[in-house]
Amino acid sequence: MAKLLSLAAGAALLALAAPSAHAQSIRFGLKAGANLSNLAGNVVNQSQYNNRFGFHGGVMLNFGLANDLLSIQPELLYSQKGFKYADQSYTVLGNTYRNTGSVRYDYLDVPLLLRLKVSGVFFEVGPQYSYLMNISTDRTQTYNGSVVGTAGSGTSNLDNVNRNELGYVGGVGFQSSQGFLLGVRYNGAFTDFAKDGYSNNDFKNARNSAFQAYVGFLLRGK
């Protein structure tokens, strides 16, 4: 996957820089959709974390090349990621704990995609930079049946997490001749979510993972 992304990024930069590669169309677009996110990687107690639904939306520019068969598409997106607690009990040294609620990560995603479109069907792949803007926690923790802690809609401390993330995107979709878009994609991360030495060992090697479904529209402007 890393080699594929390197090739895609290299092809995108060459296409933009080559004097002979004149953009045949430049289109501005809007998009919005749903995220299904969780933690991936070597996560301790993975069964405690379920998928969480969130929102993403933003703007995009599409630079058409080679009769619009190929295009380069940078995007700027607000994206909600995170996870939902599985609402199950776990026991440590004879004591029973339970977490309920969810954690939301608010990201600014900047993917740079190489796009291939044939008869309306398109495939897209490329690298992505993400910046973590905020963490919101809505959690209730019980200890042997009694509530011992809550965290509601507050902003968590970001000192122990990597706010800058490098990742990758791959997807498929359909684009009508009028510019309407319908697609699905996957977002993965190369960067661990937590910094070295983070006290919560569950997140030590955790990475963001998100499936996305979206609709959008590309204006036919030059």
Which sequence of SSEs, written as H and E, runs from N to C?
Answer: HEEEEEEEEEEE
The class by helix and strand makeup works out as mainly beta
Strand order of the largest sheet: 1-3-4-6-7-9-10-11
- Output the radius of gyration: 20 Å
- Residues in β-strands, percent: over 45%
Mean pLDDT: 82
Portion in helices: under 10%
The largest sheet, given as strand count, sense and whether it forms a barrel, is: 8 strands, antiparallel, barrel
Number of helices: 1
Care to describe what's here?
By secondary structure, the chain is mainly β. The chain has a domain at 37-112 and 129-163 and 191-222. Helix content is 7%, strand content 66%. Strands 1-3-4-6-7-9-10-11 form an eight-stranded antiparallel barrel. A hairpin with a 4-residue loop joins strand 9 (164-175) and strand 10. Mean pLDDT is 82; it is low at 1-9 and 11-21.
SSE topology:
Blueprint: H1 2-17, E1 25-42, E2 49-50, E3 52-65, E4 70-85, E5 89-92, E6 95-118, E7 121-143, E8 146-155, E9 164-175, E10 180-189, E11 205-218
Antiparallel strand pairs: 1-3, 1-11, 2-4, 3-4, 4-6, 5-6, 6-7, 7-8, 7-9, 9-10, 10-11
Summarize the structure.
The chain has a domain of 143 residues. Helix content is 7%, strand content 66%. The N terminus is likely disordered.
List keywords for this structure.
single chain; 1 helix; disordered N terminus; about 5% helix; mainly beta; about 220 residues; 8-stranded antiparallel β-barrel
